Amino acid sequence: MADLNVGDQVPELRVTPDKYLPHRYAGASGDFNPIHIDDEFAKAVGLPRNILHGLYSMGLMAKANAALAGGDPRALKRLSVQMRGMGMPEQEIVVSGTVKSVEGNRVVVDTVAAQGETQIIKNAEAELEL
Amino acid sequence: MALKTDAVGKEWPASTYQVGREKIREYANALGIDNPVHFDVEAARAAGFRDVVAPPMFAVVYSSPAMAPAMFDPDVAMNFAAMVHGGQQFEWDEPACSGDEITTTAKCVSIEEKDGKGFYVFETNSVNQDGAQVVRGTWTLIVRGV
Q: Would you say residue A2 lies in a domain?
């Protein structure tokens, strides 16, 4: 395993979801809420456009943190997030993180997903067993 | 208007989900996750899994069906038009692999008003066909203007 210390940065994950990503994620997840897949509906309820699923962005956060364990799906033991900002298709998402604590093989990472200045997932903590 | 809190403590009937290879592949593709353990049976077995293994956040796919009856329950009486998914936590144990049958139960743990918003907190607990703990979820749904 990588030798991690408190304060270390987790490698950034940068992804720009394309226009149709919310449709593919809706199919993959079973969440067909029209605010994610119908631009007209989204605007009619006061949103700027159709928005990303919060759980998609959380999925990217899980992916970014699992990368610390070479992508091993067993490594992520806990992920706790708050979804406050709206994520938009066709804008780059940057997932970053900082090691908060290391105890034996347990590592806790403070992590965030942002689009420009907007934090779309914040107050997030990932706990890994490495 | 006071929030209706009758549903606090209520549990809903369990829901069982059959995990399949193609659904895992579809989910991994949507997230751009390319580790072969999510696609290839031999790669998954070589890494110590029973079969193609799901990425951790696939938890939403098998545990969400248990949340539906909770969210639509008239005792919960949530105003969907003003609802956002405000927070989520998952705690993972046994990985979910293709062929697993995962049974999830949902429970309402709290309904509280804060700053004019309703905070509805649910817990889900998912176990596999061997009775092994797979994931525990905490779902926070926020309703504006209660």
A: no
Interface test with chain A among B17, B88, B91, B100, by most A beta carbons within 10 Å: B88
DSSP state for residue B106 in the 8-state scheme: E
Residue B90's closest CA among A124, A36, A111?
Answer: A124
- Residue A94 — φ and ψ, nearest 5°? -115, 120
Query: How many whole angstroms separate alpha carbon B78 and alpha carbon B71?
Result: 7
Give the whole-angstrom CA distance, residue A71 versus residue A53.
Answer: 22
With respect to residue B53, please indicate whether it lies within any of the assigned structural domains: no
Whether the complex's predicted ipTM surpasses the cut of 0.90: yes
Residues of B in contact with A24 (CB under 8 A): 29-30
Residues of A with CB under 8 A from a CB of B: 15, 21, 24-25, 27-31, 45, 54-56, 58-60, 62-63, 66, 71-74, 76-84
Q: Structurally, how many domains does chain A consist of? A: 1
B-chain residue closest to A28, CA distance? B27
The CATH number assigned to the domain holding B84 equals 3.10.129.10
pLDDT in tens, A80-98: 999 988 999 999 999 999 9
pTM of the predicted structure, to 2 decimals: 0.95
Where in the sequence is the domain holding B76, given as residue range(s)? 59-143
Q: Which residues of chain B have pLDDT under 70?
A: 1
Q: Can you give the residue range of the structural domain that contains A89?
A: 9-129
In a domain, A3, yes or no: no
Q: Is residue B95 part of a domain?
A: yes
- pLDDT for res B80: 82
How confident is the model at residue A84, as a pLDDT? 83
